[in-house]
Structure formats: structure tokens, C-alpha cells
Design brief:
binds ligand AR6; 178 residues; Macro domain-containing protein; 5 helices; Leucine Aminopeptidase, subunit E, domain 1; alpha/beta
Length: 178
């Protein structure tokens, strides 16, 4: 298994694709979304604006993913995915969050990409409990790697030391028994 945990700012990573925790408009916001747009420059917003709206204000429904270029980022591409807003855990939150990871990995494979980095989707403004989200991130990425050659490098980005520990624990628990 080759899932890495890396602590820091995802906009600094020179991988094939970084994943953005966006909202359904894909027109930017705060948190990691704001950081990615700032680092990518205005070309990213212009490209997002060109993506088709499925209905007014919705370019990407929750659980799905859309690809753009990386513009001024060291990453070549950005995948914009929309995580669920945490309510009480009984509104399909886990399945929707799992879809964000799985659909991103599938798109990376389709595009022939080798390396992908994920932030803790939904774990900021959207309120998903990090411990639970980390289990989903670990499970989805490890399950993917068991049956797919690409992307060969998967990075889970922790924004602080506490998140780093939580991710490491989740990966250890999700791994095969010794
Ligand atoms: N690098 C890596 N991780 C980061 C960074 C960064 N530069 N900045 C924040 N995080 P959030 P969400 C972590 O709120 O919960 C936006 O306004 C952060 O510590 O960015 O999915 C969108 O437009 C947290 O663990 O995303 C949506 O409206 C994680 O990234 C909404 O927020 C995700 O926090 C999406 O909310």
C-alpha cells in the first residue's frame, strides 16, 4: 500500500492533480477552495465559469467531480469535488463523501494521471467530523489501490499536526492485519 500522509498547504504540491473541496457553484469560496484559487490565479475562476451549469448555480453536484487546469499552481490539474454538508450522519453523508474520493480517483485514472493529493474534504466549513472522514479517505484510497495501477501515488493532506495523526491512525486501522 502506498498512501502518503503529508502535512502542509496543498497548493504547494507538485503532483499531477490536487483535489479542491469546492461548493456546487465552483466559483470559489473560503478554506482550501480560497487558497487554491488564490494560488492558481484568476485563470482558474475563468475556466470554472465556463463549465456548464446543470441547473442554476450548480456546476458540480455533491459527490461528483469536475476537472480544470492547474494554471499558476505547481500541480498540473485541479479536480473540484463537492463534499456533503454534515448534518447528523443520517443523510447519506458517508456515501457522498466516499463518492468524492472514488470519482476523483476514477477521473485521475481515465486521464492517465500518476499522482493525486486530497485535502480533508468536508472537514472545515461543511462540518464533517475529521475522525470519521479520515476513515472514509483511508478506506476508499486503499480499496482503490488494491485493484488499480493508477494513480500510483495518493497523498492525503493534513493541514495541521492533529489531522496528520488522525490520518495516520486511520490508515493503520484500515490496513491488512499483521
Ligand atoms: N491546504 C490543505 N488543507 C487545507 C488548506 C490548505 N491550504 N486550507 C484549509 N485546509 P474547507 P469543506 C483544510 O472548509 O469543509 C469553501 O468555502 C481545512 O483545515 O476548505 O469541504 C468551499 O467553497 C479542512 O480540514 O472545505 C465550500 O463552500 C479541509 O481543508 C466549503 O468551503 C476542508 O475545509 C467547503 O467546505
Amino acid at each position: 500500500m502506498n498512501i502518503e500522509v503529508w502535512q502542509g498547504d496543498i497548493t504547494e504540491l507538485a503532483v499531477d492533480v490536487i483535489v479542491n473541496a469546492a461548493n456546487e457553484t465552483l466559483l470559489g469560496g473560503g478554506g482550501v477552495d480560497g487558497a487554491i484559487h488564490r494560488a492558481a490565479g484568476p485563470g482558474l475562476l475563468r475556466e470554472c465559469e465556463q463549465l456548464p451549469e446543470l441547473r442554476p448555480g450548480v456546476r458540480c453536484p455533491t459527490g461528483e467531480v469536475r476537472a480544470t487546469g492547474g494554471h499558476d499552481l505547481p500541480a498540473r490539474h485541479v479536480f473540484h469535488t463537492v463534499g456533503p454538508v454534515w448534518r447528523d450522519g443520517r443523510h447519506d453523508e458517508a456515501a457522498l463523501l466516499a463518492n468524492c474520493y472514488w470519482q476523483s480517483l476514477r477521473l485521475a485514472e481515465q486521464m492517465g494521471l500518476e499522482s493525486i493529493a486530497f485535502p480533508a474534504i468536508s472537514c472545515g466549513v461543511y462540518g464533517y467530523p475529521l475522525h470519521q472522514a479520515a476513515v472514509i479517505a483511508a478506506t476508499e484510497t486503499m480499496t482503490w489501490q488494491k485493484s488499480h495501477a493508477r494513480p500510483s501515488r495518493i497523498v492525503l493532506v493534513a493541514y495541521n499536526a492533529a489531522a496528520f495523526k488522525i490520518y495516520q491512525q486511520a490508515l493503520a486501522n484500515a490496513g491488512p492485519a499483521p
